[in-house]
Structure formats: structure tokens, C-alpha cells
Amino acid sequence: MSHENQEPEYHNTNILSVLVGLLVGALAGALTMLLLAPQSGEDTRTQIKEKSIELRDRTTEMIEDTMAQVRANRDKITMGGRRKAQELLHQGQALVVEQLEHVSEAAQAGKKAIQSS
What we know:
Layout (H helix, E strand, L loop, with lengths): L1 H35 L4 H76 L1
Helix pairs in contact: 1-2
């Protein structure tokens, strides 16, 4: 059961690592492009601005997608927990009914024993 609890945490850490890796890679690529591209300062600034906006938009989209996945997983886990709680409740109720039947039978047997003596 502890393995199930650790799996979503590992998955979230893995997604976060991928996002950080993409961000660092994009920044390194942008820096390399700027250093190797022979163009004017104004063109470079315009390009930096455009790439920054593009990177921001992609990062925002990735974060939104990741959050949607996390919410879906959370809902799935919650529903599974509720279903399991309902199963346990029904099992508990069945055990109570069974035990009450045993007690009732024992009481009847005791009543008959008292009456026959």
C-alpha cells in the first residue's frame, strides 16, 4: 500500500524534472542562437522578445496540461478511495448482521435451556 502512495509523488517529481529540463534546454538554445547569429542588436532584442513570449506560452501550456493530469489522477484516486470505503462499510454491516444473528441464536438457545430446566 505504501508503494501506491509513493507512485504519484514520483510521477509529479518526474514531470517537474522534465519541465525544468525543457526550460533549461530552451534557455541554453536561445543563448547559443544569440551568440552565434550575426545580426544587429535591435534584431537580436526583437528575437529575444519573441522567443521569450513563445517560451512563456509553451511553458504555461505545459503547466496547464500537467495540472489537468494531476487533477484527473487526484479525482481517480478519490473515487477509488470512496469506492473502497463503501465496500468496507458494506462488509462491516454484513458482519454486524451476522454477529447479531449469532447473538440472537445464542439468546434463543439460552432461553430454551432456562425454560426446559
